[in-house]
Design goal:
The protein is α+β, with helices and mostly antiparallel strands. It is built from three helices and eight strands. Helix content is about 30%, strand content about 30%.
């Protein structure tokens, strides 16, 4: 059911949000702003019109390429700082985020994650949060976003 929902949201985003339904909206796969990730098999951001689909970020300190220590709160903070960096690279900020998908490795971390999350998003973007076993690099959290550039 979640896969159907995500596909439906993507289709609506791609086709339902264009200003002129008959226009061809270009798709741009942006290169990463981090040289160490230049060989990654994904883009940090894909632009469709004025929508930016950001790939999931984890609580990795990109200067050391290691997860930050300190548990879910520190990983959440670093994850959101990483999102800020991607947005800044595209001349946006956290206020441009309209949708987040949050994956926790343990749903019991929800309250602690949410405490940090809400300090970054006072505008309250739409959000889906769920837990999954085994996130990349042993992370406790991963967040992907959709932002609108005005």
């Amino acid at each position: 059911m979640k896969k159907i929902y995500l596909v439906l949201m993507l289709v609506i985003s791609l086709f339902g949000c264009t200003p002129n339904s008959g226009s061809n909206t270009s798709i741009t796969f942006h290169e990463t702003h981090e040289p160490k990730k230049s060989n990654a098999p994904f883009s940090d951001a894909v632009q469709v019109g004025n929508l930016y689909f950001l790939s999931g970020q984890v609580g990795m300190d990109h200067s050391t390429r290691k997860l930050v220590t300190g548990g879910i709160e520190q990983e959440t903070k670093q994850t959101l700082e990483n999102i800020k960096d991607v947005l800044k690279h595209h001349d946006m900020d956290m206020s441009d985020v309209v949708k987040c998908t949050v994956i926790l490795s343990d749903i019991n971390d929800f309250s602690a994650f949410n405490k940090v999350y809400k300090t970054y998003f006072p505008q309250k973007p739409a959000r889906t949060t769920f837990a999954a076993k085994g996130l990349a690099v042993g992370a406790k959290i991963e967040i992907e976003c959709v932002a609108v550039k005005n």
